Fold VOC domain-containing protein.
Amino acid sequence: MASGVASVWVPVDDMDRALGFYRDTLGLQERSTSPEWSELDAGGLVIGLNAREGTARHADGGAVISFRPDGDLDAEVQALRDKGVEFTGDISEYDWGRLAPFKDTEGNDLQLFAPPRS
């Protein structure tokens, strides 16, 4: 049985571009880097950037990484938009929280998640 998440692997086409996005745009702390594998700290969770092999073709689908915004969700969405991040939909509101979907520079699905407002 699983006792938690050890890391999340994200396939990337361009390691430098992906590192720039996760480090500079999202503000995650870089732990290690190489052309094939890089790691970032997302509040105690390791996000591993895994270089695609030259023969692999990018495909949609796969895991989605949800990030907790540092502050108000609406303000964080605007801050990311100001950095050039394109959101793939509007903020969705549910009984269990709010989601704002976007993609990284490599086409992977990401989202900001905020618990319900009290």
